[in-house]
Amino acid sequence: MNRAPLRAFLRVSLMSAFALLPSAAMSDGLFAQLDASRTTTTGVLSVERGNLSYATSLSGYTGGADLNASLTYKFVLGEAAPVTFRIGPAFQYEGLATPKFGVRVIAEHYRPTTFGHVFLLGEFTSIDTGYFGLLTVGFNEPDIDFEFTVQGDDDGYFDQSIAATYGLPNNATRLRLGYRFQSREVFAGVSLNTF
User: Fold this and answer.
1) Of the candidates 134, 130, 122, the residue with the CA atom closest to the CA atom of residue 191
2) For the chain: N or C, fewer Cβ within 10 A?
3) Which whole-number Å values give the CA distances from 133 to 16, 99, 151, in the listed order?
4) Domains in the chain, please, with CATH?
5) What SS3 class is residue 81?
6) pLDDT digits over 10-60, tens only?
């Protein structure tokens, strides 16, 4: 197995995170996720401090891998139903061979409910006109979330998925199990969220 893409992903992620954050203890939050299926493996890392967020992902698939990174600035609009926006430069190393540059825009909304919470996220990047949408419905007892996603680009990629995540007691780790409809495959993973 060629581990060079994974080493590159870890090296870029760690260098960028440390450049953004003088101390990990000072960070506002960290999100990390790893999903794997029969044909794909995707790792995601996002670190936020103040109004700046650094995000990177590595997607390995049959025949190649893509490395993505972005640095975004956050601002919030609205009071009764606040929406958090993030915007900034984006980079993709397509197939670990072709560099592409663009802009990434994200809008998200978190709403507590009597049973748990609802989270909405929409993302657009000018690189290949990529998009990603997420709806999460979370329950407090038991600590189970259900996620629905849609993503694609103008380069021919499109998929939808559903997943259930279970929060491990007394920590920020969640176990993940889901299904991608267009790919017709099951995936499993783990995530860590300190936001």
Assistant:
1) 134
2) N
3) 25, 24, 6
4) 3-10+31-193 (2.40.160.40)
5) coil
6) 555 555 555 554 444 455 889 999 999 999 999 999 999 999 999 999 999
